[in-house]
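Researcher: For the annotation table, I need structure tokens for YkzI. Please keep the output clean. Sequence:
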Amino acid sequence: MKQLMNTSLKKAGEKERTAVLRLEMDYELAVLFEAIEEKNERKMKECKQKLEKIRQELLRLKAL
């Protein structure tokens, strides 16, 4: 029974983290869009790095 509860809590935590990551991804995509419009290479590079980290974590959570 304890294992079932732990598994249930873990899945709930993963769902919550996935939702947060998707919001972060949406925000970073908006920032990247602005950077592209401004032709700001430094900002574009930073956004792409953040997006890559988010992508890797989503893949780890099997949410993509």
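Researcher: And a one-line annotation?
Model: The chain has a mean pLDDT of 89.
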